[in-house]
Amino acid sequence: MLYNFLYPLHVDYSVLNVFKYITFRTFGASITSVLLSMLAGPTYIRYLQRKQMGQAIRDDGPKSHLSKKGTPTMGGGLILIAIVIPTLLWSDLANKDVWLALVVTLLFGLIGWVDDYRKVVQKNPKGLSAKEKLFGQWTVALIAAYCMYALGDTTPVLKFPFFKDLAINLGLFFIPFAAFVIVGASNAVNLTDGLDGLAVGPVITTAATFLILAYCAGNAKISEYLQIPYIAGAGELTIFLGTVAASCLGFLWFNTYPAQVFMGDVGSLSLGAALAVCAVITKNELLLALCGGIFVLEALSVMAQVASFKMTGKRVFKMAPIHHHFELKGWAEPKVIVRFWIISILLALFTLSTLKLR
Q1: Which residues contact 319 (CB under 8 A, 6 or more apart)?
Q2: Distance between CA 135 and CA 183 in Å, rounded?
Q3: 256-283 residue pLDDT tens
Q4: Cα separation of 108 and 285, whole Å?
Q5: Can you say whether residue 70 is alpha, beta or left, with left for phi > 0 and alpha for psi between -120 and 50 degrees?
Q6: 130, 245, 352, 356: most buried by Cβ count inside 10 Å?
Q7: Would you state the pLDDT for residue 71?
Q8: Distance of alpha carbon 351 from the chain centroid
Q9: C-alpha–C-alpha distance, residues 231 and 24, integer Å
């Protein structure tokens, strides 16, 4: 909004030329986002407390979690506010990629909100059924993937990291593939959100990494130098991803151990979808699996646990997702969280190294 209104005036007021630069607007959006999240956080948490939006705790989970019963949830609404407002304020509103990322994020947030509402307000411990949730996710993801394919902004090509010339043209199969990436990432982040701040940390590192990747993909000279696909307009996603990382950083102030608020499905489902949409647009779907390795590990641990129990009657882990396994092995919750954060940072650094390792 500021870009659309103020940059045209740079002819008369040269100082406004600064709005031309994505880097400047990314810093502005990120600062706005983290301040908005931190300043609005206490009021938002008090509102959740007044409405008695308390988290229900699984009886079969680690006993240390029973003390968390009643902690306000649905805090992901605060994250969405801190993403949407700064993005609209600082990005180019004529950019289709930004609108696509925002709409998908909000729609996945809506699915998560309905799930949380049923659990917390209507006291239905199951919330949305798995079929209902997946139907909503796949519907939104398929429409988003079709839009990307039909608009032609994103080529239906799967690029492989480490290989500058290795690519597969997916054709129409791009639509279900892109939808699978979006749905898979959304649910993977959701599964990771089981300890105080556990999901938020890797989301910050992944969003920050893809911020750099989006900027490179949207810059013709840099993309040519790095021999990565040039995606016209993708640079504006740098601003969106800056708000994703910054909003989570502000939310972490309240979500760090011991948490004052949980993000709930409204936060985890939307954040996973946001990262995935940006990965698909910038042609970095496989790098999302690498950078978001913590999310992949959490999802695979659940699948392995379910498959093993159904086939053999035995469990691979003491409890799934895998962060609960380490808790039941005696690791203190903060130790699990910080060690997972460290792994996420290392994966982010390795992901960025692929820009030169080709």
Answers
A1: 61, 62, 325, 327, 328
A2: 10
A3: 999 999 999 999 999 999 999 999 999 9
A4: 19
A5: left
A6: 245
A7: 87
A8: 16
A9: 20
- Identify the pLDDT of residue 303: 95
| 59 Cβ contact partners less than 8 Å away, ≥ 6 residues apart | none
- Token pair in block for residue 168: 């597969």
| DSSP conformation letters of 37-54 | HHHHHHHHHHHHHHTT-B
Look up residue 56 and give its two tokens.
């229900």
CA 280 to chain centre: 13
Whether a cis peptide bond, with omega within 30° of 0, leads into 258 is yes
Model pLDDT, residue 8: 78
Q: Measured between alpha carbons, how far is 146 from 174 in angstroms, rounded to an integer? A: 9
Mean pLDDT within 126-141:
94
Contacting residues for 204 by C-beta, under 8 A, at least 6 apart: 245, 248, 249, 252
Sign of CA dihedral 262, 268, 274, 280: positive
The C-alpha atoms of residue 262 and residue 120 are separated, in whole angstroms, by 12
Sole residue written with tokens 């999802």: 299
The answer for residues whose C-beta is within 8 angstroms of residue 45's C-beta and 6 or more apart is 72, 75, 254, 260, 261
SS3 state of residue 260: coil
Please provide the distance, in angstroms rounded to a whole number, between the alpha carbons at the two ends of the chain. 38
Residue 36 near residue 82, CB atoms below 8 Å: yes
- Answer whether residue 105 shows pLDDT above 70: yes
Q: How far apart are CA 257 and CA 288, in angstroms?
A: 27
- Residues contacting residue 186 through CB under 8 Å, at least 6 positions apart: 108, 137, 268, 269, 270, 272, 273, 276
Largest CA distance in the chain: 74
What one-character DSSP code corresponds to residue 132? H
Residue keyed to tokens 């053999």: 312
Scanning the chain, the segments in alpha helix (DSSP H) are: 2-6, 22-50, 76-90, 96-120, 130-151, 174-192, 200-217, 220-226, 237-255, 264-281, 285-291, 293-312, 322-328, 333-353
Residue 132: both structure tokens together = 């209902």
Q: Which residue carries 């031309």 as its tokens?
A: 20
